[in-house]
Design brief:
mainly alpha; about 0% strand
Length: about 450
């Protein structure tokens, strides 16, 4: 059997305009996806263990974190959008073999993202005393929820730095280093959380401190491998200006702003969803939060494949290879749907066992199992929306996909959830979620195969 070429060599084929066989394309997608999938799964497993640690402190502790969790996702989404606004440009320049331009964008991104993260952290700390009450939380969980979110917001700069450096490495085709470091971060998170939650007896506050320390260590390591060790993007011995330029920043805003707005409104929708769940009681809040953690075991592989798709599409566009880019897109979507379908089946089968790891409370286990089995049916189309969105990000095409996601979330999920929750409780909320994910996946697939997103691509001479 002919030996499969490694990803570094296959990526050079894109930049050099060499022809690739179907087997080589699939091999490249797989090679780039596997490290990222492993990192995503390990992150989920470690977060799973982390949530279990808190869950064993009782339903109130789980509810305190679950209440502000969606707002934390909103902050993370805004940080991610800022990073991708610059890293997609880097992918395009690398595809065009212009490594100096890629490093120029990198320098500017470090300053811009630092400023952005400081702004976000400041806002998060200021609102932390009021947030639990805005979200409909009761006084019995408000103090822990507020303190947890304040510490999380303080660590925002670490999260932004780690995300930016990792995104830059991935867009250069280096999936292994960010993946290994993310796995290490998860392991550190568990160790630190154990120390601060149980040994130092800090409870929910300890969970936030442990996570923040893990982020700090990982951010430092990620910057080292990006700025010193990276073959394509290292700044060591390569002086240059860090002053942001209008053309670079405006392009980053053009790519990142729709994603940022999407994350804000999607995060807002998640917060509204929390408001819908909050009146259902502490058990429902805890089951909702822990079931979301369990479900992430299913969709993390999809995000791993989406990251590979972003890299391949971004470099393909930079190289001007329209047909190859379209081929990578379609193969990535097929792989993502296949993997997440299998994961959905496994989640349906093992839902009770997974929930029992998360919480010892029988009511939480039972309710969490029911909603997970509802959600399992939506996983194939959820995969489609995740991977296709990664494709569009690589193309720098973020406005219309953001609009699709927002309309789907606000007009389908929340409308249905608000209508179903009073009668069917948490099961009604998760039924609305499943219907919306299927609808969104269908919309993304339609645009991928029939839309005009590739018309702007130049054809390589």
């Amino acid at each position: 059997m002919k030996k499969v070429k490694n990803s570094e060599l296959l990526l050079s084929y894109i930049r050099e305009g060499k022809a690739m066989t179907g087997r080589e394309k699939l091999a490249l997608i797989t090679q780039l996806s596997i490290p990222s999938i492993l990192a995503q799964i390990s992150a989920t497993v470690m977060f799973f263990i982390d949530a279990s640690m808190v869950g064993h402190l009782g339903a109130k502790a789980s509810a305190a974190i679950g209440l502000v969790e969606t707002t934390g996702w909103l902050m993370g989404g805004l940080a991610h959008a800022a990073s991708l606004g610059f890293s997609v440009q880097v992918a395009h320049f690398i595809g065009a073999n212009d490594f100096e331009a890629a490093r120029r964008v990198l320098r500017q991104s470090l300053i811009c993202c630092l400023i952005w993260s400081l702004m976000m952290s400041t806002i998060g700390i200021i609102i932390s005393p009021f947030l639990p009450y805005w979200l409909g939380g009761s006084a019995e969980i408000a103090h822990d929820a507020s303190l947890y979110f304040a510490i999380f917001a303080f660590c925002g700069i670490f999260f932004q730095t780690e995300g930016l450096a990792g995104s830059m490495l991935k867009c250069s085709g280096n999936m292994k280093i960010p993946s290994v470091l993310n796995i290490c971060m998860c392991l550190m998170d568990v160790v630190f959380n154990y120390i601060f939650i149980y040994v130092m007896n800090l409870g929910v506050t300890g969970a936030a401190i442990g996570t923040g320390l893990a982020m700090l260590v990982t951010a430092c390591l990620m910057l080292y491998f990006l700025l010193v060790k990276s073959k394509m993007l290292s700044l060591k011995g390569r002086p240059g200006s860090f002053k942001p330029r209008i053309d670079t920043v405006s392009t980053a805003i053009k790519i990142g702003a729709p994603m940022g707005l999407q994350h804000m409104l999607m995060g807002g929708a998640q917060i509204v969803s929390t408001l819908i769940v909050a009146p259902l009681g502490t058990i429902a809040i805890a089951a909702h939060s822990l079931a979301i953690t369990v479900e992430s075991l299913c969709y993390m592989p999809g995000y791993g494949i989406a990251e590979a798709a972003t890299t391949l599409v971004g470099q393909g566009i930079g190289a001007g290879q329209k047909l190859l880019t379209r081929s990578f897109a379609r193969l990535s979507v097929g792989l993502g749907i296949s993997v997440m379908t299998v994961m959905g089946v496994l989640m349906w089968i093992f839902a009770p066992q997974l929930m029992s790891i998360m919480s010892p409370v029988e009511e939480v286990i039972s309710l969490g199992t029911e909603v997970l089995r509802i959600e399992a049916w939506a996983e194939p189309m959820f995969a489609a929306s995740i991977v296709v969105n990664g494709i569009f990000i690589g193309a720098g095409d973020t406005l219309i996909p953001a609009a699709i996601s927002l309309c789907s979330m606000w007009f389908v999920r929340l409308t249905l959830a608000a209508g179903l929750a009073p009668k069917y409780g948490l099961k009604g909320v998760w039924t609305a979620m499943a219907i919306e994910l299927i609808f969104r996946g269908c919309c993304f697939l339609t645009r991928l195969f029939k839309g005009s997103w590739t018309e702007k691509l130049k054809v390589k001479n």
